[in-house]
Predict the 3D structure of the following.
Amino acid sequence: MAEIQGVTSDATNVNFQVQSGEMESEGFEIQATASIVDGLSLVASYTYLDLTFLEGDNEGNLVTGIPRHQFSLWGNYEAVSGPLDGLGFGLGARFLGATEGNGANTQPENGARILIDASASYDFGAADQRLEGVRAQVNVNNLFDKRDALCNNGCFYREQGRQVIGSLRYRF
């Protein structure tokens, strides 16, 4: 359990934030990782978070925009031999539970949603020992560009769309 000083979106202008007073956070997170066969791994995680206002007009209410339940499942495969040695692919799903539409918890909830993510990578060390530690990777968050309308204190906005992030790294 943690007590924090929080800010939330201003009910009159979603572009601003206001001091909301003390909030209390209780929850837990659990994660499991499994290597199924050579090169194939799975990761599953679950988070429960109860974030409530401790004082003010919204005392005892859930904080807006924060899901109580989150679950994710991610699978990753990286070829360990043959012509595809060093090439990897990943696919995952994120479940985000329903969230409150305002601090008073009087507006309709934002519904639960599922987002799909993907990745592709290549380990250059598999092709040439001199490149050991060099890896290129592309991650795609929200693969299908799902952009639900979310309510936050009377203002509606679209969820962040597809996001593509590339990286080139060297580990030594």
The longest strand covers residues 13-37. The mean pLDDT is 89.
